[in-house]
Specification:
The protein has 346 residues and is of the alpha/beta class. The protein folds into three domains: 94 residues, no CATH class; 143 residues, no CATH class; 77 residues, Winged helix-like DNA-binding domain superfamily/Winged helix DNA-binding domain (Arc Repressor Mutant, subunit A). The chain is built from 17 helices and seven strands.
């Protein structure tokens, strides 16, 4: 049974129906959530504290208003679903500023109440109070009585922090590398039951068999320890609890870099890479050029192949080796990403 779940989850994650993305609009919502209470955000607390000092009195008051929203405003990430561009923060903020009170309530309450029911009750204080009682708490009651105050507060804060958020956004390539490391580690080493991992990944053990055609897995430098899902009926967006997954990902990435850097930390192997950059070649041809024995050359080529920097093909007279320039570029970018990720809160 566990093996079947593993195969289903692997097939689902690697299928075209799952896409790993970054979203500056989502980053904006997550960053404002972080600013509300940065004390539990660990590595990002310095960035958040410094950014708060740049906000004026009106913006800080708006931030406090956001803090009264369910999940401290993080549910508003659902508004990203109805925007044309997940990375156009200016258009996103303008769009939210134009949203009708009913629509804003629908997303702010995490879609816990149907839009039709909200539309029926909005504007009638007595019905609104009844709806608030259905929703469950005093903050939701305040939101239902005056949604435009909360909407305008979100717009004010997002407009104020947008530029700082964009500067801190992570690239899709960086996120994909982290994901690959996590998935490889989880699947190869079976560190936990597959069902538990599916819940961490998508909030649902049955995610692979859901009705949604496309899942977008979103990550953010600003995301607090929350798992979030939102959808627009055609698309399903998932923001996993990255802090739970990140530790293994970082270790796996470090191990990958150790293989790559270790493979290049040798004069002979660097010279082999240079020769192969000029033309594909056999080990038998390379050995006399570098003045090493065939056995030594074979060892060096095995190391480079294991690091993924060199490919090997069978030919009529033996094996031919070639440099994989795409793998070299990816390794260089990964070194840069790894170092920048390590100093991101400097």
């Amino acid at each position: 049974m566990e093996e079947d779940k593993l195969l289903i989850l692997q097939d689902w994650i690697t299928s075209p129906s799952v896409e790993f993305i970054s979203s500056r609009c989502f980053d904006l919502v997550a960053a404002s959530h972080l600013l509300v209470d940065c004390s539990h955000h660990g590595f990002a607390s310095k960035w958040a504290t410094e950014l708060r000092t740049s906000l004026n009195e009106a913006e800080l008051e708006a931030l406090e208003t956001i803090g009264s929203l369910p999940l401290e405003g993080l549910e508003l990430a659902g508004l990203c679903c109805v925007t044309d561009d997940l990375n156009d923060t200016r258009a996103f903020v303008e769009y939210v500023g134009r949203t009708a009170p009913e629509e804003f309530l629908f997303w702010a309450l995490g879609r816990k109440l149907p839009l039709r029911r909200i539309s029926e009750c909005y504007g009638r204080l007595r019905s609104c109070d009844e709806l608030a009682a259905t929703g469950g708490n005093v903050f939701q009651a305040a939101l239902l009585r005056d949604p435009l105050r909360f909407r305008d507060a979100a717009v004010l804060v997002w407009a104020a922090i947008s530029e700082a958020v964009v500067e801190k956004a992570l690239s899709v390539e960086h996120l994909t590398t982290r994901w690959c490391a996590v998935l490889s580690d989880r699947f190869q080493n079976r560190k936990e039951p597959i069902a538990e991992f599916a819940v961490k990944l998508a909030g649902d053990e049955m995610a692979p068999t859901s009705q949604f055609g496309v899942w977008y897995v979103v990550s953010s430098w600003f995301l607090s320890p929350h798992r979030l899902r939102w959808s627009d009926l055609q698309r399903n967006f998932v923001a996993p609890d990255w802090q739970e997954l990140d530790e293994d990902a970082e270790r796996c990435r470090a191990e990958y870099l150790d293989r790559v850097v270790g493979a290049l930390a040798d004069t002979n192997r660097l010279m082999i890479m240079r020769e192969l950059a000029r033309a594909r070649c056999s080990g038998r041809t390379l050995a006399p050029r570098l003045g090493v024995t065939p056995a030594t050359m074979s060892h060096h080529l095995d190391v480079l192949c294991a690091a993924g920097l060199v490919t090997r093909e069978s030919a009529q007279n033996g094996q031919v080796y070639a440099i994989d320039l795409n793998a070299v570029d990816a390794a260089v970018n990964e070194v840069k990403a790894y170092l920048s990720y390590g100093t991101r809160d400097a």
